[in-house]
Write a structure and sequence with these properties.
Layout lengths: L1 E8 L9 H9 L3 E2 L2 E8 L3 H15 L3 E7 L7 E2 L2 E3 L25 E3 L4 H10 L14 H12 L6 E7 L1 E2 H7 L4 E2 L1 H16 L3
Parallel strand pairs: 1-3, 1-4, 4-8, 9-10
Antiparallel strand pairs: 2-3, 5-8, 6-7
Helix pairs in contact: 1-6, 2-4, 3-6
Length: about 200
């Protein structure tokens, strides 16, 4: 059985809950297609999140890494195409604010996802879930984690990438006027993305 490391994030900024954390906990230990899922939640901390995801990869030795992030305001499931070598954005949960800072001084300007993102989008839509490829993972923690993994394992067979999800109904009720999906649909959409990895071309 192959292994898939699935990561989400803790609540951050004004958001009192994070649906990616719920998805990771729900799918941890499950088998989807050819993969056993190992789910972990990362801190919203520039330094610690990057360090921890790389430590988890070394511990788990997965075949695939799929990281999840909340993109409140988006209304589709959006696998990310590219991560860029920059940290710039709001304060993390430790109060650290970064501007125009490289993630890795020796890293490439950008790395493309090595997940089958087009197949994921097509499969989601075939199953009735709105989806599209996103060409910007931003410059906050989501991009930071995606870039760190792709840079570290660029010369290996590890498949890795990032998927942004909309807000959940619960989050929208608590935190504002965002497009939202049910947790059932959010979780199922990630299951479908993982199923895509086992599909034969």
């Amino acid at each position: 059985m192959k292994k898939l490391l699935l990561t989400g994030f803790e609540p951050f900024l004004q958001f009192k809950m994070n649906p990616t954390d719920e998805i990771v906990k729900s799918l941890n230990g499950k088998t989807i297609g050819d993969y056993i899922i190992i789910g972990v939640t990362l801190p919203v901390d520039y330094a610690a999140s990057e360090q921890q995801i790389l430590q988890h990869i070394e511990r788990v030795k997965p075949d695939v890494v799929v990281s999840l992030g909340l993109a409140a305001g988006r209304f589709k499931i959006t696998p990310e195409r590219i991560a860029i070598n920059i940290k710039d954005g709001a304060a993390d949960n430790k109060g650290v604010t970064l501007q125009d800072q490289l993630i890795d001084n020796d890293g490439d300007d950008a790395y493309f996802s090595t997940l089958p993102i087009r197949a994921m989008v097509d499969y989601l839509k075939e199953n009735g879930y709105p989806a599209e490829i996103s060409n910007s993972a931003g410059t906050y923690l989501c991009n930071n984690v995606m870039y760190a993994v792709l840079h570290k394992y660029k010369d290996t067979s590890l498949q890795a990438g990032f998927i942004h999800i909309p807000a959940s109904h619960e989050l929208t009720i608590i935190d504002g006027k965002f497009p939202s999906w049910s947790m059932t649909d959010l979780t199922r959409s990630i299951e479908l993305c993982i199923e895509t990895l086992s599909m034969k071309a």
